[in-house]
Amino acid sequence: MAEMVRMSDIAKRLGISTVSVSKALSGDKGVSEDTRRRVREAAAEMGYQGSLRQRKDAKRRYTVGILIPARYLDETETFYLHLYQDVARQAPLQGCRVLMETLEDEQAKRGELPQLMTAYHTDGLILLGKPPYDYAARMRDKWHRPVVYLDFSAPEADVDAILSNNVYGTAALTEYLIGKGHREIGFFGTLNVTDSINDRYLGYCRAMMRNNLPLRPQWRVDDRDAASGNAFSARLPSPMPTAFVCNCDMMAARLIALVQEQGLRVPDDVSVVGFDDYLPAAMSPIPLTTWAVDTVEMARLAVESLKKRMQGEGGFPQQQITGGHLVLRGTVKALSP
Q1: Per-residue burial over 94-124, b = 16 or more CB atoms within 10 Å of its CB, e = otherwise
Q2: CB-based burial of residue 59 (10 Å sphere; 0-12 exposed, 13-18 middle, 19+ buried)?
Q3: Partner of 259 at 20 to 30 A CA spacing, among 113, 166, 288, 297?
C-alpha cells in the first residue's frame, strides 16, 4: 500500500515550507495566489487526502453565525429578516447550526466583536447587510475565521460575497416603464446608504442613458437619512415625473402613500415600481410591480460558500450574483404614444 502523502512531502517537492503548504490548503492568508495554486495542483497530483482532522471536518456539523445590523431589522427593512429566515432554513440542509445576533450602530462604531464571535464557538460568519463605520473590515482584522458577505461586497473584492442582480433588475424595471411609454422617470432612494441602493440606481441610470433619456437631479428623491439609514417623509418634486423606480418594495409603498396624500393616483397619475418582491399585501394598497429577488438561492449560496471555507477550501474570493425576474402587477399605466 502506498504511503500517505503528507504536507511535508508537498513542501519538499515545491521547495517551500510546510507552514506555507498548510496555509495554502486551508485558505489562510500569508501566501500568494500563485503559491496557493501550485500547492493545490501538487496536492492533487500526489494524491494528498488531508490530515485526519481535515477528513473528520468534512463530516462535522458546523456552527454558523449570522450577524445583522440592527438598523436592517426595523419596520422599514424587513427584507433582511426575510433573507435571514431563508438562511436559517438552508443551513440545516447543509449540516450547519445557526446562531443569530444583531449589531447595534454604537457597537459597530466602537468596533466591538459580537458575542457570537467571543462567547460562543462559531466556525464561520455570514454578515447579512453592510454594517456602518467600516465595521466589516475592522471585524476581519480581529476575527480570523471564514466570513461571507450577504447582499453586499467588499470594495477590494477580497471576501466571498453573494449578491442579487441589482443593476440588471432596476435596468429591467426602467426598460419596462420606457416600453410602456414613460420618458420622465425618477428614482426614489438615498445614495451611499447601502451598496444595494447604489447598484440599483446605476441600473436605473443605465437604462435611461441607453434610451437617451435625461437624468434630472430633481427627480432623484431621497427616502431616508444618509447617516442613520432611517426613513423620513420625503419631499416630492414639482413637476412630478410620470413614473418612479423605487430602491425597494417598502419604499415603493411609502411613495404610493405620499403620492396619494397629494391627491394623485397610482397608476393613473404616477406609475411606481419596487424591488425585492417580499412586501405583504396588507402593506401596499395596490399590487406592486417589482423585481423578484431569489432569496432562497442567495441563502443557499451563502451557506454553501461559507461551508467550503470552513472545510479549508481555498481559491480566489468569489462574488456570486443571483438571478431574478420581473413581476407585473397593478402600479404601472401605459401612456399613449
Answers
A1: eebebbebebebebbeeebbbebbeeeebbb
A2: exposed
A3: 166
Q: What is the pLDDT of residues 121-160, one digit of tens each?
A: 899 999 999 898 889 988 888 888 899 999 999 888 889 9
What is the value of pTM for the model shown?
0.78
Residue 258: what are its φ and ψ, rounded to 5°?
-65, -45
Which H helix or E strand runs over 195?
helix 195-210
Residues in Cβ contact with 17 at an 8 Å cutoff, skipping those fewer than 6 apart? 11
Instruction: Tell me the C-alpha distance between 65 and 215, whole Å.
Output: 42
| 120 grid coordinates | 460562543
Tell me the domains of the chain and their CATH numbers: 7-56 (1.10.260.40), 62-164+295-323 (3.40.50.2300), 166-293 (3.40.50.2300)
- CA gap 241, 319 in Å, rounded: 35
Contacts of 274 (CB under 8 A, 6+ apart): 246, 248, 249, 250, 251, 252, 253, 288, 289, 290, 291
**Looking at residue 282, what DSSP letter applies?**
G
Instruction: Report the side by side order of strands in the sheet with 243-246.
Output: 220-221, 185-188, 243-246, 271-273
pLDDT at 38: 86
- Are 152 and 129 in contact by the 8 Å Cβ rule? The answer is yes
Phi, psi of 122 (to 5 degrees): -120, 125
Amino acid at 185: I
Q: What is the predicted pLDDT for the residue at 155?
A: 87
Phi, psi of 107, deg, nearest 5: -65, -40
Low-confidence ranges of the chain (pLDDT < 70): 1-3, 26-29, 49-59, 74-77, 281-282, 337
Written as nine digits, the cell of 37 is 495554486
Cell of 48: 494528498
